[in-house]
Amino acid sequence: MLKSCACGYTMKLILRTVIHAHKVSIANVPVYSCENCSRNEVFPGVKEDLGRLIGRFGSKPEPDRIRFDEVHELAGVLRHLLERKLPLQASEVARRTEERTNELLDLLLVADSLGDEKWKAELKCRLAQLSAQYIA
Ligand SMILES: [Zn+2]
């Protein structure tokens, strides 16, 4: 998962903490980072969801700490790979994404058999987060 930077160097995909309005710390946000010029870019596949999350806090938020890997499935996939010391390569990301998608689909079956509409809606939202990376 590499991207070229405006300075000509290669940007690496990493997870970093983003601070919003000096108050809210959001850990494990997927970001492309350049070691040469220190430029950072939020990974396109999570940009919209991160924006929505920050939007909920407004411009004068109460201090808070959030783990983005717990609210966003794609960040969860990357965190899973890093915890196992696996490289953040497209092939590894695709493999874990498929595995996680299957886990969520299994849960969706359970939620469906229980008739739990709220849980079903949450699972569908999480499944959409995993497919969003391909749109980016
Ligand atoms: Zn650069």
Task: Describe the overall structure.
The protein starts with a strand and ends with a helix. The model has no long low-confidence stretch (mean pLDDT 93). It has one domain. Strand 3 (24-33) and strand 4 form a beta hairpin. It is an alpha+beta fold. The radius of gyration is 16 Å and the shape is globular. Strands 1, 2, 3, 4 and 5 form a five-stranded mixed β-sheet that branches. The longest helix has 25 residues, at 90-114. The protein is 54% helix and 23% strand. It has helices spanning 44-57, 68-71, 73-83, 90-114, 117-135, and strands at 2-4, 10-20, 24-33, 40-42, 64-67. The protein binds zinc ion. Zinc ion binds next to loops.
Write the layout of secondary structure elements.
Blueprint: E1 2-4, E2 10-20, E3 24-33, E4 40-42, H1 44-57, E5 64-67, H2 68-71, H3 73-83, H4 90-114, H5 117-135
Parallel strand pairs: 3-5
Antiparallel strand pairs: 1-2, 2-3, 3-4
Helix pairs in contact: 1-5, 3-4, 4-5
